[in-house]
Amino acid sequence: MKKTLFTGAGVAIVTPFNADGTVNYDRFKELIDRQIENSTDAIIVAGTTGEAATLSTEEHIEVIKRGVEFVDKRVPVIAGCGSNDTKYNVELASECKKAGSDALLMVTPYYNKTSQKGLIEHFTYIADRVEAPIILYNVPSRTGVNIEPETYSILCKHDNIIATKEANGDISALAKTISLCGDNLDVYSGNDDQIASFVAMGAKGVISVLSNVVPKVTHDIAQLGVDGDVKKSVELQLKYLKLCNDLFMDVNPIPVKEALNMMGLDVGGYRLPLCEMTDSNKAKLEETLKLYNLI
User: Fold this and answer.
1) CATH fit for domain 8-233, picks 3.20.20.70, 1.10.260.40, 3.30.70.940, 3.30.1540.10
2) Is 270 an active-site residue?
């Protein structure tokens, strides 16, 4: 049985930018403090929502260092560090560990992709060389590759592979993964509209985009389910379902950053190829935020 890193909601936090496109570290600290003050259970830095794809390696490591400094051991810090180049992934993961992160979030190889055998070899190669807890990240809608339950059952035998962020949307596959892996692999939902379903099946919580906007609500949806109050978890999930969905009306993290800006948190813009939402989508998002009394 492996040690659980956290239960509840971990926020996949946005990376705020200044007007000139540089990272706004003052606002980053404010965002982290807001999350922890509102019961967020872990901070995931430089993931997809943190726009890691357009951070240079130096920026990537600096964002993690600052995140570790700003969190100051109040909750775990998980560093996004996936790559489709296995050897580079080892180098990046090693630097993320040196930067002080408590664990590493590794997405499956994207674009060049790989087979199930390749996934086993890729993650095992990294886990053999980086002495840190690893959370796998399965998001086939972005990467074009899916981790199958049988593959999880092999990977979870490695001491350093402790969990997965599962975002393939397949509840039947989730059930099989949990059945095959048991206590050797903690599971976190990677989809905010499935938190209650996941924790009812035995997941430990969520790694969330929604938490950026409503951290306490997201924590409660997850933790209520973990604690066995499935009815209240489901009620809260359904209450916030429209917000969950509308935060994905455009490519993540465009809507969530727009929402935070509308809420007065001023996280800045994006780096190309991400760009502003259309005016019609902005109007829809604004109405949704008003519906939930967020603006």
Assistant:
1) 3.20.20.70
2) no
